[in-house]
Design a protein that fits this description.
The complex is a heterodimer of chains A (234) and B (111). Chain A has 8 helices and 10 strands. Chain A is an alpha/beta fold. Chain A has 2 domains: 69 residues, no CATH class; 152 residues, 3-Layer(aba) Sandwich (Rossmann fold), CATH 3.40.50.720. Chain A has a 6-stranded parallel sheet with strand order 7-6-5-8-9-10, sandwiched between helices. Chain B has one domain. In chain B, strand 2 and strand 3 form a beta hairpin. Chain B starts with 11 loop residues before the first helix and ends with a strand. Classes of the chains: A alpha/beta (234), B alpha+beta (111). At the A-B interface, helix 1, strand 4 and strand 6 of A face helix 1, strand 1 and strand 5 of B.
Chain lengths: 234, 111
């Protein structure tokens, strides 16, 4: 592979944009295709199918064996709340391959001492998300319990079609949250995408156990999203 | 700190770029086809240098050694090569996949 092409591909991947590297399996000659590129002909159709499914594979175009390697952005996890659960969730999620970021405007919580090696913003979610918007490859977990902090990012996550949206809080707390989100113009179907109470029901008691239940729920959402896309295509 | 996969140092494509920048001779191996139960999905990468250093995986550790050996040949010939590994492949390869699957691995120089 040409090093300049590899550099371009890596720059796109670092910017969280999906790309396909198409390699001729006889010669090794490769081309880079961005999701925003105009696509024509047989190759164009094959690229569209590959972007939609997210699956890499071989195709034959004009008698040439081509391998289409699809690179979608790595799944990212944005946690609203620099709380005890987040201290366990951040390293666990990193081990599972997620790109983790913690946001909490309360400077007493959002300290580097409590979150070593973690991307941390001691700012309001409104400010952080304006610079780094949520996308469909992002999971959002809101765990502060505080509507002033949690509500805005939950709404933003639903509108950005995040693959996972979870919120901590009892059923009663969530009921009030649903009323507020409805008042802000979100539909019942949109609001129903929020996983609340957050986490798989494994009887988690400690913050670390709750973190396990949340991470398992996120992985479940991530993997079922891929299979849903495959079904939609079939 | 951004903890994106490209920044962690173990992303094979990012590593391939970095190694080339350091003046190392680099080959890239890619799983291009799998049959049956294969340990790593199509598209998985192993990056190899001419000293035999490698990062990433194309199987669960079953055939990496053989791929590294072939990659060093590819770096000398500067010609890409297709490798195939299967469990019952006694004649062509000494290594195989204990899980019973078969994989095709494309090995190419990066330059």
């Amino acid at each position: 592979m040409d090093i300049e092409l590899l550099k371009q591909a890596n720059a796109e991947r670092a910017a969280r944009r999906a790309v396909i590297l198409a390699t001729d399996l006889e010669t090794g000659a490769a081309t880079l295709h961005r999701e925003s590129d105009r696509r024509d002909g047989d190759l164009g159709s094959a690229l569209t199918r590959a972007f939609d499914s997210g699956k890499s594979g071989s195709v034959e175009i004009g008698g040439r064996p081509l391998f289409l390697n699809v690179h979608v952005p790595p799944a990212r996890l944005v946690v609203i709340g620099a709380v005890h659960i987040s201290q366990a969730l951040a390293p666990m999620a990193r081990l599972a391959g997620l790109d983790v970021e913690i946001i909490d405007p309360r400077t007493a919580f959002a300290t580097p001492e409590r979150f070593p090696d973690t991307a941390l913003s001691a700012e309001w979610p409104e400010t952080v998300l304006a610079n780094r918007p949520l996308d469909a490859f992002t999971a959002l977990a809101a765990v502060t319990h505080d509507p002033k902090i949690d509500d805005y990012p939950l709404e933003a996550a639903l509108r950005a079609n995040c693959f996972y949206v979870g919120a901590l809080g009892s059923r009663k707390t969530h009921g009030k949250r649903v009323d507020r989100l409805k008042a802000n113009g979100l539909s019942e179907a949109e609001i129903a995408r929020i996983r609340a109470p957050i986490g798989l029901p494994i009887g988690a008691a400690s913050p670390a156990e709750i973190a396990v239940s949340v991470l398992a729920e996120i992985i479940g959402a991530l993997r079922s999203r891929a299979s849903r896309q495959m079904e939609a295509q079939a | 700190m951004t903890s994106d996969l490209l920044g962690q140092g173990t992303d094979p494509l990012a590593l391939a770029e970095r190694w080339v920048g350091e003046g190392r001779k680099v080959a890239l191996a890619t799983v291009v086809e799998t049959w049956g139960s294969a340990p790593r999905p199509v598209g998985s990468h192993l990056v190899i240098d001419s000293e035999g250093n490698f990062e990433g995986s194309v199987s669960g550790g079953c055939v990496e050694g053989a791929v590294v050996g072939e990659a060093i040949d590819v770096l000398e010939s500067r010609t890409p090569k297709m490798l195939e590994f299967g469990v019952a492949d006694e004649t062509a390869w000494q290594v195989g996949l204990s899980c019973g699957g078969r994989i095709k691995v494309f090995v190419e120089p990066v330059a």
